[in-house]
Amino acid sequence: MKLGIKIAPGSAWKPNILATHPSMVEIWYNTSKPADYDEMFAFLSTQHIDVGLHFWGVSDGLLADSSSPLITKTINVAAQNHCVYVNIHPDLCSALAVDFDTMNIHIAGPIQNPQLVQQKFIDNAIRLNTYAKTRGVILTVETVPLRDTPSWKPDRDRTQVIDIYQMPIDVFTDLAKHGIVIANDFGHTACNLITDNRTYIWQFLKTTTQTLAPATRLIHLGFIVPPYNGVDFHDSLDNPVFETNNAVPNKKELIELLKLFRNRDDVWMLVEPSRDHIKNYVLAKGILAQI
């Protein structure tokens, strides 16, 4: 496995890379501000590490879906800058208004037929996957939480739940059957079962990860904590709760999941904390040493 870090403009991305010397980086890529990435791409071209783009696009204030030309444009940017993958999220069953500056979101349209939306997304993912291959880029589709909150800020209140009309996790099994690469965010996947029983969530996460493992090439190391309400939790691996059964997966369980990939040299992996990227890289490296 290739361990890396998440980077974005406006952060300490260069010092973090120089401090960790990662095998890969994943860039939070906002299609609205392509010039913000020029310095980053120029620097990374000298580092000889794998680079992936995590697609984020807004069109007329709405989160771009799989039919948006912005994804094709991002694949082209990836190819031009020798990036290895572009990571996207599946479509929602309703339009979602997003402001990347304030990090606020809200539902902005009627609910669409889930079956029709799901089939449309699968068709678009197949098309995008075919195009990405022609550009020498891997398309990955990331597992996502079932619900969200009105704010994406790190200090948000996770109990302020809104339904974003997400697709069921079953869609990823269908994508894998079509040869599309999966990005398994462990915390996101765990958010797809809402129950007070953490044992059920752990079994769901373990079974889903095992099922998707052959198609998985990108892993986001994360965990959730109570309330298990479908909302994700991006926190540091040094949070004491990660050592307890309140976390799903906890540290012991995370090691168990990673053993599924220990002989894989084609899998990228990173932590997505809200802070302390260097510390979390070191902690993740220590976890990998135990598998």
Write up what this structure looks like.
The protein has one domain (2-288): Divalent-metal-dependent TIM barrel enzymes (TIM Barrel), CATH 3.20.20. Helix content is 33%, strand content 21%. The protein has helices at residues 13-20, 38-44, 69-80, 114-134, 170-177, 186-190, 198-212, 251-258, 277-288, and strands at 2-7, 24-30, 50-56, 58-59, 62-63, 85-88, 96-99, 104-107, 138-142, 147-148, 162-163, 181-185, 216-221, 268-271. The strands form 4 sheets. Strands 1-2-3-6-9-12-13-14 form an 8-stranded parallel beta barrel, surrounded by 5 helices. Strands 4-5 form a two-stranded antiparallel ribbon. The radius of gyration is 18 Å and the shape is globular. The mean pLDDT is 97.
Q: Tell me the span between the first and last alpha carbons.
A: 11 Å
Care to count the β-strands?
14
**Major sheet:** 8 strands, parallel, barrel
**What is the CATH first-level class name?**
Alpha Beta
Query: In the CATH hierarchy, what is the architecture at level 2?
Result: Alpha-Beta Barrel
Based on Cα principal axes, name the global outline: globular
- How many domain units? 1
Q: Could you give the order of strands across the largest sheet?
A: 1-2-3-6-9-12-13-14
Amount of helix: 25-40%
The structural class is alpha/beta
Please state roughly what percent of the residues sit in beta strands, choosing from under 5%, 5-15%, 15-25%, 25-35%, 35-45% or over 45%: 15-25%
Helices, by number, come to 9
Q: What is the element string, with H for helices and E for strands?
A: EHEHEEEHEEEHEEEHEHHEHEH
